[in-house]
Protein: GDP-L-fucose synthase
Organism: Prorocentrum cordatum
Amino acid sequence: MTKKVLVTGGTGLYGKAIEAVIKEDEAAKDEEWVFLSSKDGDLVDRKAVEAIFEKHKPTHVIHLAAKVGGLFHNMRKKVDFYRDNTLINDNVMECCRIYGVKKLVSCLSTCIFPDKTSYPIDETMLHNGAPHTSNLGYSCAKRMVDVLNHCYKDQYDLNYTSVIPTNIYGEFDNYSIDDGHVIPGLIHKCYIAKRDGTDLTIWGSGSPLRQFIYSKDLAWLTVWTLRNYDSVEPIILSVDEEAEVSIKFVAEAIAKAMDFQGKVVCDTSKADGQHKKTASNKKLRSFLPDHKFTPFEEGIKKSVDWFVANYETCRK
Ligand code: NDP
């Protein structure tokens, strides 16, 4: 049987990167890949999800679609983040079972780990305490994917697993200043500051630390997971711990990539979120010890150039 891979959330930051990686992948030439957008059906709606599975009959699924947003959007809409993501995940996972999908890779996030924890975080700690209150709704919905993966294994012996990426950045991101993640938000703010001759303002102190992964690196690792990783236990897909950077460093890298000559300042009246959430990629490194990640400055330059070139039409 030909492998038919359905990618939910195929038009977002992560999905577009998988599409780009697949275009250049020899091994994908004999496979059929389908990239879904919300226009193909609202995954919150069970009937729409059934229709999608009926139409495509996938053998493999990479499930990326989610209601996603930055810190401030998550803080404002906790119920919406919980309910939409719970319904999407339940519909997709159950349809995978009903329609005989052989392998499902779903997507979690390092921001769903316990707030009070030891560092570095690893895959065994996912349920060891409450998540940070800022994204409680999103985190609890996502954690249930891991619970269900184990349940599907125990009850139906299915090969369903999950990846846990750190913060992603790259082309096709959501550059909304109010609702987006920190890198696309800062890129957009830097563009405006350069255009209007104002300061580039970081929301918060600039001191929180994060690991960022370039979307195409993550895409390659996700395809690798689909083909090679056969455990129900989640796997963290992250750059090394040493690659953790402060938000201030990120803002300065963006300013450099955009040739912004003005001042970079911090608005400390805004929330910082978790100070850090350092994740260990030891499990990933046990499979791919020599894997090379795109250097941060290089990935930022590509993201900034893409935003400038697509300013009129991109999400913002
Ligand atoms: P985007 O917002 O860029 O893309 C979201 C995708 O999901 C889009 O294709 C969107 O379709 C689709 N989608 C959203 N809601 C629905 C719905 N109700 N029905 C059908 N499709 C829907 O998000 P990312 O690419 O950043 O995120 C992808 C995954 O990665 C998510 O599961 C997220 O939790 C996870 N993740 C993201 C991180 C990040 O830093 N961005 C970090 C860690 C994990 P459309 O384009 O039509 O709107």
User: Anything to note?
Assistant: DSSP finds ten helices and twelve strands in the chain.
